[in-house]
Design goal:
Blueprint (H helix, E strand, L loop, with lengths): L1 E5 L4 E6 L4 E6 L5 E5 L4 E5 L5 E6 L3 H16 L5 E2 L13 E6 L1 E5 L12 E3 L8 E5 L2 E5 L5 E6 L2
Parallel strand pairs: 4-7, 9-10
Antiparallel strand pairs: 1-12, 2-3, 2-13, 3-6, 4-5, 6-8, 9-11, 11-12
Length: 155
């Protein structure tokens, strides 16, 4: 994928391949996100043009609503991000994971929910290998497969 998408503060960009869905919004007014690990609390500081992305391991309208809801909880509700240890049994049941920052690499080679680093996010199918980069009023998506892209209203 090689695309540049205009993205405003009240819009969401969906990338999808039928079996997997990624949603991307601008951080907007959210200045920080808390990342909770088993041992510590980390803080990721964000600028208004940074990205918050949620990756869902399902497709269709239900997946889009799950992604939209999770991004709403993080950006508008201040919900912290939880990081599990790789051996935690819930890593096999996660259907949705979130990352935030100015650059996010989607990778199918990581265990979902186990990375406190916010520059990597589990992305399966056509999303594997896509690099998302924030820009002023836009998001760049390059590499990986060829998912479909669609913008919609976030709020």
């Amino acid at each position: 994928m090689n695309g540049e998408f205009a993205l405003g503060p009240d819009e969401i960009l969906f990338l999808f391949d039928g079996d997997n869905t990624v949603g991307i919004v601008k951080a907007g007014h959210l200045k920080r996100v808390f990342i909770e690990t088993e041992d510590e609390e980390l803080v990721q500081f964000l600028g208004p043009e940074d990205l918050i992305a949620a990756s869902c391991f399902e497709g269709g309208e239900k997946a889009r609503e799950m992604v939209r809801s999770m991004l709403f909880l993080v950006r508008e509700g201040g919900t912290p991000l939880l990081v599990l240890r790789k051996s935690h049994p819930a890593t096999q049941r996660l259907k949705l994971v979130v990352s935030a920052g100015d650059r996010i690499v989607l990778s199918g080679c990581i265990v979902p929910g186990t990375h406190p680093e916010q520059d990597v996010l589990c992305g399966k199918g056509a999303m594997d290998g896509i690099v998302l980069e924030a820009g002023e009023g836009r998001v760049l998506a390059r590499g990986g497969g060829s998912p479909h892209a669609e913008k919609g209203r976030f709020l």
